[in-house]
TrEMBL record:
<keyword id="KW-0732">Signal</keyword>
<feature type="region of interest" description="Disordered">
    <location>
        <begin position="23"/>
        <end position="42"/>
    </location>
</feature>
<protein>
    <submittedName>
        <fullName>Multiple sugar transport system substrate-binding protein</fullName>
    </submittedName>
</protein>
<keyword id="KW-0762">Sugar transport</keyword>
<feature type="compositionally biased region" description="Low complexity">
    <location>
        <begin position="30"/>
        <end position="42"/>
    </location>
</feature>
<feature type="signal peptide">
    <location>
        <begin position="1"/>
        <end position="22"/>
    </location>
</feature>
<keyword id="KW-0813">Transport</keyword>
<dbReference type="InterPro" id="IPR050490">
    <property type="entry name" value="Bact_solute-bd_prot1"/>
</dbReference>
<dbReference type="InterPro" id="IPR006059">
    <property type="entry name" value="SBP"/>
</dbReference>
<dbReference type="Pfam" id="PF01547">
    <property type="entry name" value="SBP_bac_1"/>
</dbReference>
Amino acid sequence: MKRKMPILASVVALTMALTACGGTSGTKETTTPAGTNAPAATASTAKDTITALLPPVSPNYQKTFEQLSKDFTALYPNLTLKIEPASWEDMKQKLDTQVNAGSPPDIAFGGSGTIPKYIEQGLAMDISDVATADMKGDYDQTALDYMKSGKGLYGFPAYMEVHALGGNKEFLEKAGIDWKKVQTSGWTYDQFREAIKKGVVTENGKTRYGFTFAVKGVAAVDYLGIMAKNAGMPYAFTSDMKYAYTSKNYLGLLKDLRQLIDDGSMPKELSSVDAGKRWSMFLTGQTMITGKGLAVFENSAKANNAKIKANDASAVKDSIPVDYIVLPAPTFQGAKASANTVVDGYMTFRGKKEPTAEHKANIVKAAYFLASGNVAAATNNDLFAAHITKSGKKAAESMKIDRNPDNVAAVDNMLKNATPNRTDIPTDLAAKAIKLETEVIVPKFQGLLAGEVTPQAMYDAVKAAAIKEFGENGIAKD
């Protein structure tokens, strides 16, 4: 798909408008003729550099970094947007290293769920006093709320999507799976288990698995978290603030996920499968269903199909044409579907020293530039993600997108069951849960997937750690 990156035809008009603005940072609001809301300008034209640590948000995103920086400076001649690229694999480590050193980037792309951790470390920057009403009003409120904690706003959202699974249409139909019914009605764990068993095929000495999920490293928690939401544990805490993963449903879920490997429906070496290997396995016909999946995977599959057809050497080696089908995750333990809503965005940070009011305003300008208008439209179209800003929707009207209508409907259906954000969980509890997840859940779950830890042993370890963190009265008991 051909992408259109920002062409800022109204730069001169905007610059004149900004020059005319006076007063204090964040008190005046300006809207460009192109529909991109701009933050208020200060009277000062002092040079300033805003740093951003950004992963490959979409397939073509990192290719645009040089142009993004040029376009930003065209909007704000005194400002420089310095972008540091990172892979998905090392993004978290890079950011945490910089945060721990007390010198994080001004902006970093990441999951909204990590915001409480950085608030607790004292380096997440609340921009609620600087972001203008026009900026905040540009966003769908539900998406914007994910970037909040308490009364604070810690950046701008890039997209709101659901984590789903993805299937190879041909293989699904060969296995007798009514994927259209699954898209509309979902499936239970037992139905899913039997379906992926049917997807296991051995041809020419090679095995095609029914299901493969990327779980190497931090990706392990994605798998467990997505499934936990569909097992009656949509949040790490219950409504009365008890740590949820000591529930009997958690043990049942661990047993179920291990069972899929023991069935032979998933690779025994699953613990070594990272995101790249998972996608390669899907495109080369080594698995019927893959996860986690975002809508962008349909676009990526189509792009690879086109390369195969054109005998393009850059197509994934040994890949086959794939018709990508969006599928919901199964439900466990008789629970209702609770789709894992993912809101990633541009988080804002401060260093050990309080930033100047001017620099803080400039960070907001840069974060909003990346998360709205033409930039957001192009990025979200590349992702096949829904537009969550008015300015992005407007800019996207001229951008063509080729998407399977069944997949669109499937995502819309999952969004109806999406897990809403909870702003009532105190940041100290949320930060402790993230710490427990990092130090106990991830390594134990990787051990479970590798066959080195039993479900009961993992559950016992999580429960012991939870009691240590939250106390006997701070955990769920059933």
